[in-house]
Amino acid sequence: MMSPLQSPPQLLLEDFLQLAETKPASEYINGQIYQKPMPKGKHSAIQTFLAPAINQVAIPQRIARAFTELRCTFGGRSIVPDITVFSWQRIPLDANGEIENIFEIYPDWAIEILSPEQSPTRVIDKILFCLNHGTELGWFIDPQEKLVMIFKPGKQPEIKQDGDMLPVLNSLEDLLKLSAQDIFSWLTLN
């Protein structure tokens, strides 16, 4: 479970961003610092396969790009979703045309993979926060229950399991076809 680290009450976001990065990453939420748990095997297996699966179809077409453990600072928070996907034209670039180090925008798609010691409520809160600031799609992947909870702005969450197809960014619908079963197949060595 993520718990607040020792920090002054209502630490300012600017002060948090000056602190040294931690491993695993710390996040700034409502004036408090929360350290993410160290990823375990199931979490790592899904994250290791999912981001490349997205990038394999999205990058060649210059549609989007997936990033793992990327700090996103927006709306008064600084969070590090497990996977973020940004539409191609929204990826921040520096003066050299290279990807910026600092992303001060919301992702188009936020993906969280639940670790055993994480609070599902806190993880879902991060996805809802993203949606409230412009994110188009959120996935909450629960490896223990073998389900993916889908979040879209203004809609009730949906549970996807087994052969249920998972929604992706509208711009990727014709290119990326994944079912809940596909996601959880990455947990086996077959």
Structure description:
This protein has one domain: tt1808, chain A (Alpha-Beta Complex), CATH 3.90.1570. It is built from four helices and ten strands, in the order αββαβββββαβββα. The protein has helices spanning 13-18, 41-58, 120-132, 180-185; strands spanning 26-29, 32-35, 64-68, 72-74, 77-79, 83-87, 109-113, 137-142, 147-151, 158-161. Strand 8 (137-142) and strand 9 (147-151) form a beta hairpin. The two termini are 31 Å apart. 31% of the residues are buried.
**The CATH architecture:** Alpha-Beta Complex
Poorly predicted ranges: none
Give the overall form.
globular
SSE-based structural type: alpha+beta
Report the major sheet.
Answer: 6 strands, mixed
Percent strand: 15-25%
The span between the termini is 31 Å
Tell me, rounded to a whole number, the average pLDDT: 94
Order of helices and strands: HEEHEEEEEHEEEH
Count of individual domains: 1
Question: How many beta-strand runs?
Answer: 10
Name the CATH class: Alpha Beta
